[in-house]
């Protein structure tokens, strides 16, 4: 990837959202620039999904702000949101509709007219190798193929901003490669990608920046080109856990 130097597509400033028991996000700053993949890594419960939901306006912060294309997300017009694509937690798929219809609906929800939605859906079916399932209802798909449909729906309309939470969940190796190549193409065309993952080796293949989150806070960065990324990750997390225990 080429490291971008321009106005961020998405920015979170001092974001805080706490839940009973202490989980949540505690003062995170984050930015995604055009032409880069920014990866977030952390153990389960570190706050990755909560952070993504805050950045996309699915949750409201207790304090802090989020800017989408330089505009507060509360004020961002539909045409700005139309330039975003995301998959957070569960892929969008209406169980009673087949794959083709699901993709067309997803495209329409992003503002495409009927004919254009049909065209992009066919291209997405080809890109994510879904032709054999195009007429199959989503309820009959395996988890991996449902994930492919969700990813295709998030990417098919050519978003400038892509936010994906654990996108390789349930994917077979072929699906992982298809996703990797799809993201590389879009980043090469100037899109910005924010992706969370616990697959550090896969992250290292595509990321320009890797941010480590623990207990709802940013605790450091990893070099995606470094040696033994997993060891470096666990060292950061362990040191932070020790420091918080001592405090």
TrEMBL record:
SMART domains for the chain: AAA
Record domain ABC transporter: where: 10-240
Pfam families, per the entry: ABC_tran
Topology versus the membrane: Peripheral membrane protein
Compartment(s) where it occurs, according to its Swiss-Prot or TrEMBL record: Cell membrane
Keyword Transport among UniProt keywords: yes
PROSITE patterns registered for this protein in UniProt: ABC_TRANSPORTER_1, ABC_TRANSPORTER_2
Keywords (A to Z) from UniProt: Antibiotic resistance, ATP-binding, Nucleotide-binding, Transport
Keyword tRNA processing: no
UniProt similarity note: Belongs to the ABC transporter superfamily.
PANTHER family listed in its UniProt record: ABC TRANSPORTER ATP-BINDING PROTEIN, ABC TRANSPORTER ATP-BINDING PROTEIN NATA
Name the UniProt record assigns to this protein: ABC transporter domain-containing protein
Source organism phylogeny: Bacteria, Bacillati, Actinomycetota, Actinomycetes, Micrococcales
């Amino acid at each position: 990837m080429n490291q971008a130097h321009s106005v961020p597509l998405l920015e979170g400033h001092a974001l805080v959202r706490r839940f009973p028991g202490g989980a949540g996000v505690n003062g995170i700053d984050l930015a995604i620039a055009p032409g880069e993949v920014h990866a977030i890594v952390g153990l389960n419960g570190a706050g990755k999904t909560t952070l993504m939901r805050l950045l996309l306006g699915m949750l409201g912060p207790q304090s802090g702000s989020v800017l989408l294309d330089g505009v507060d997300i509360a004020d961002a017009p539909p045409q700005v949101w139309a330039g975003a694509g995301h998959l957070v937690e569960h892929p969008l798929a209406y169980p009673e509709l087949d794959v083709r219809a699901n993709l067309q609906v997803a495209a329409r929800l992003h503002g495409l007219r009927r004919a254009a939605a049909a065209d992009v859906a066919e291209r997405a079916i080809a890109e994510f190798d879904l032709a054999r399932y195009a007429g199959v209802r989503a309820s009959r798909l395996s988890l991996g193929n449902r994930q492919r449909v969700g990813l295709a729906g998030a990417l098919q309309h050519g978003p400038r901003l892509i936010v994906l939470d654990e996108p390789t969940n349930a994917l077979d190796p072929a699906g992982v490669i298809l996703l990797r190549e799809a993201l590389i193409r879009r980043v090469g065309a100037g899109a910005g990608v924010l992706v969370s993952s616990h697959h550090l080796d896969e992250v290292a293949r595509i990321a320009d920046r890797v941010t480590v989150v623990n207990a709802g806070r940013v605790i450091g960065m990893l070099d995606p080109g470094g040696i033994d990324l997993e060891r470096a990750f666990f060292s950061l997390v362990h040191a932070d856990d020790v420091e918080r225990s001592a405090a």
